[in-house]
Amino acid sequence: MTLLQDFVLETSSNPGVGDFILNGPPLNRISFAQAFPDGGQVFYYADDGTQAEWGIGTLTAGAPAKIARSEIYGNTLGNTEALRFTGGVEVYNEVPARFVPYFDKAGGFSVSGLLSAVSLTIRDQALVPDAKDWTGQQAVPAHQADARYLRKYGDANGAAPDLLTIYLGSGQLGVYAGGAWHTYQPAGDYATNARVNDVASSATSASSAASSASANADTRILRAGDTSQNQTINGYLTVQYGGKKFSFQPDGNAVAYDGSGNSFFNVSPGAINWNGHSFAFLDNLPLDASKKLVCFMVAITSGQRVTFPSGFSAPPDSINFNSTQRLDLWWSDADAGGFTITSNSGVSQTISVIASGNR
To answer: End-to-end alpha-carbon separation of the chain, Å?
Structure first.
């Protein structure tokens, strides 16, 4: 806060452009150190009779006291530079015009200088009369605002409403708060406790009746997963899921259909078909339960060691090749984990291998 007192004036000798070293007050005046605390911000004017400067200075109380030129707002040369004083100077406490509020001839309350850089701060209370025109720009006193405007409830988790509206079509109340709209049901469009209790009672009765009906129907219809009775069904048993379905059919097949009605999975008594690829059941192959087949493709060169993807418990009974090239191939050194392959050519090629033997 910048300080102001009456009759504060001192002299300073030859300050140049530096601080004003204060000599003390003349008769019937008081010094800056008597009026203001050490370090205080004070309004000042400095005048040597031919030129003057004004602004805000910082007081250092001492022997001697001095005022530093903290902010210079103007001088008689028309700029804000520090004037060079070479003789005696009077330094006194006065408010520059830019800080003096006044009423202009139109009744407007104003401040000189740059208004955009000036704000009005009330140190204690500003008392205003009751507003009489709520469409104008009158100030509103606290007791009128408290009775007229919505106050925020003192909840740390709550948000003060920014906007309120009524939707005329539905009668809903809309409140805009926290960056989003929230709507509330209009009067008469809500469930009372009595009505909720009636609905709950009706639902309980309906549930009891449904349970009784389910118990009666349980002995008459086929239930999913029921293996307690020898129940049969004629035609198709189909599970629908979206546009797809899975059917257990009279021909003994279980078939899955896509959304266009095309079969993509089929299980028959003899094989499994998945998207056009058939797989035979193991007991339909000419193998007993102790044997297995290993089928795979491998890129080879002559003299290479080939490892089975799934090993046998002993050297396999047979190893067969299939190649797209007319090259002689033979195997040797077979064991449970693989074999060595030899060809008449050193050319690399990819072959199919089928091996059978003990699991």
So the answer is: 98
